Amino acid sequence: xxxxxxxxxxxxxxxxxxxxxxxxxxxxxxxxxxxxxxxxxxxxxxxxxxxxxxxxxxxxxxxxxxxxxxxxxxxxxxxxxxxxxxxxxxxxxxxxxxxxxxxxxxxxxxxxxx
Length: 114
Fold this sequence. Notes:
Layout: H1 5-11, E1 18-21, E2 25-29, E3 37-43, H2 58-74, E4 82-85, E5 101-105
Antiparallel strand pairs: 1-2, 2-3, 3-5, 4-5
């Protein structure tokens, strides 16, 4: 989608504080961080959310989680802990209709989260 902000970031039309990029995945620091470490991991291809994913997206979904895990380790979060969040729909807090994984860490997380 041409007007999707995450598609524009993935294409390089909008600058973001990128921490990772390959042909399928882009990760960048959130502009409104909710923790000392708050990154977003997105696919380059537009996929509106987890509910829109199908069997053809299994490898991509796995890669999103792998990249998030690797970034957490690079930030030293693997020892203390971190949270991965995928919001689906408005009531869950999804504000951009492009699937994204929030990587949050660097502080204690509370439960329940919402």
